What does this fold into?
Amino acid sequence: MTATTRRRALAAAAAGAALAASPFRINVLRAQEGPIRVGFPVPLTGPYATEAQNQVRAAEVAIAEFNESGGLNGRRAELLPRDDRLNPGEAATRTLELIERERVNFIVGSLSASVQLAVNNVTKARRVIFNSISQSDAINEASDWSPYTFHEALNPHMTAGAVGRYVFSRFGKRVVFLTADYAYGHEMVRGFQRAGAPLGIQVLADIRHPIGQTDFSTLLPRIQALRPDLLIAINFGRDQQITMRQATDFGLKRSMKIVAPVLLYSARVAAGPQAFEGVVGGTSYYWRLEDTVPSAKAFNDKFRRMHNGAVPTDYGALGYGGVRTLLEACRLAGSTDTDKVIEAMRSLRYDYYKGPQYYRRCDHQSVQSVLIVESKSRDMKDENDVFNIVHIEEPNEANLRTCAELGHAG
Amino acid sequence: MGTLGFDLLALQLFAGVALGAIYVLLAIGLSLIFGMLTVVNFAHGAFFMFGAYAGVFLAARGASFWASLIAVPLIVGAFGLLVERFLIRPLYGRGIDYPLLLTFGLAYMMVEGIRIAFGTLGLPFDTPESLQGATDIGIGFFPTYRLFVIGATAAILLGLWLFLERTRYGLIIRAGARDPQIVRVLGVDVSRVWLLVFGLGTGIAGLAGLLAAPLQGVSPEMGGPVLAEAFVVTVVGGMGSLLGAVVAGLLVGVTVALTSLFVPEMAKVSIFALMAVVLLVRPQGLFGRPGLLS
It folds into this structure.
C-alpha cells in the first residue's frame, strides 16, 4: 500500500535468502513446549501507526480469548509486536530476529503489500508459517507463494471485483480511474477491468499520479470535462483523503459517483464526514456488521471490553482473524508443529468475526465476503458510525483468480 | 485527449496559477529567513504543520476561522522567536550547515510532539462555511476557498512588501541583510532584527499551514512534501528573493498544471526538472544574488 523502492524490497529479499542459505545457519528448533509465541511485525510508528495499533489490540483479543479458554493443553499464547516502520528491509530484519532470537512459532502481520512480500521471503526460507493481514495480489502467485504462506486479508483482485460488480451495474459504465502509480494501484485497475469487461464498461481515462501528492486540483478539471459516470480513485491513506476532499471542493460529486476500492474506517475518521460524503467503496470489515452477523457482535464486544469501548477497524479485525485462525489450528492439530498446523489451517471452515471463511487449498487465500460500504454524514448512531453497509458479496471462489492462472498445480 | 477544448485549457492554466499561489505562500517564509539570515530553515515544513494544528486547537475551543487567521501566525511566530533566541542564535557565524542540521532535528521533534499531543491519525478540517462550494469564474467552476487563498496570498505579499520597502524597520532589516557589521556600528541591535525576521518567517509558515488545512486536512506528516516544494520554489526564484519566490511559485504551479494534463504521472518530477534547467542556466536562481551561500 505504500511506496517503497523495488531495490529495497529486492535487497531485503536477497538478505533473507542469503541468511537462509548460509552454511552457518543454525537449525531453528521452535519450542514445542512453553508458550506459543506469535511474532507480529506492523508499522507501529509513522503515518499508519493508529491503524497498526488497532491491529495489535485486535490480536491481543485473540490471544486473551485463547488463554482464557485454556490455551493448548495449558500452553498459553504470547503476542510479540514489532515495529516494521512500513519498510521492507526493516520488516525482514525484525522478522528474522523474531524467528532467530525470540524463537516465535508463527508470524502474523504487515500493513503494506511490499512489506508483506519481504516478510514472506524470510518466513518462506525459514519454513515458518506467515499469515499476512494486508492486501496483495502477488503473494498468491506461485512465484512468491510458499506452503508456509497464508493470506487472511482480501486481495486487490477480490476487492476491486466486488466493488466493480456493484458500482458498474448501478451507477454507470463510463469510468475514469485516478490511480496512485505503484503496484497496489495497478493491481486494482486490473481487477476493475476484469470485473468490468463482461459488463461492457468504457474507460475514458486512467490518470496516474505519483504517491504522496498533496494537491489534485490540476487533475480535477480534466476529469470534470470527461463527464464520466464514475470516478474510481485508487489511492490510499493521505492521498485518498486529499483526493476526496478536493474532489468535493471542485463539485465533482454533483455529476459523478466517486468510488474508492478500499474505503477504510480510519481514513474516513481522519478526513471527516464532508470529504467522504456519498463515496462508495469496499472493505473487509466494518463494525456495524454486528447488526446482522453474530460472530461480529461477539468480536466487537470482546474488543470493546478490552479497549475502553473502542471499535475495531477493518485492518484491526484482520489482526484478530490472522492470529485466531493460527491458534485454533494449533488446537485442532494438538501441536504447534509447523506441518501439522498447516494441515489444520487448510482444513479450517471458520466464522470468527465476519461470517464464513476458509483458506483455498492451492494458495491459502482466505475465501471470504467483501463488504460494500457508503460513507455517510447524517443519521449517525455515534461518532464511530461512519458507513452504511449497502451490499455484501458472499464468499465465492469464482471471484478469485484461478489456481492455474496463479501458477499453482492444483 | 480528444476533449481538450479551450475552456479546459484555460481552466487548467487557472488551476496552475491558483496552485502557484499556494506554492508562493509556502515559500515566502522560507525565502525571507534565508534571504535575511542565511539560515536554511529545515523546520519550515514543521512550522507549517504546527500552524495547521494550532488552527485545529483553536477551532476545538470555539474560535472562528477568521480569528485563527490572526491568532495562528502570532502563536507560531512566538514559538519561532523562542527557537531563534535559544537555539539558532548561538549558531550564527558558524557556517550554514549548523542551523541547517539544528532545524532538521527540530522538525523531527516538532512532528513527534504533535503526534504525542494530537495522535498519529490525521484530523479533519472543514472549509469555513462562507467559503464552501464553487464559484463561476467564466471558464468554469472553481472552488471558492481556493480563490480566497489566492487573495490571502496577495494580501500577505503586499503587506510584507510594504513592511520591508516602506517602513523604517524594513529599511533596517534590509540593511542588516546586506551588511550586519556596518548596521551594528551604526548602533542598531542586529540580533533583535534577526529575532524579528525569524518570528515573521515562521509566523507566515504557520499561517500557510492554517490556509492549507481546509485544502488537504491536517496530519503530523503534512509538512514533509511542503518543505521540498518550498525549497524548489525558493531555489528556482533565487534564494532570498521575494520577487523570485512569487515568479517561481507561479511558474511551478503552471508547470505542474500542464504536466498534469498531458503526463500526470510526471507532475511531481516536472518541478524538479524545472529546477534543474533553471540552475543550469542561472545557478543563483531567477532573481537571486550570486554568492549568498558562500
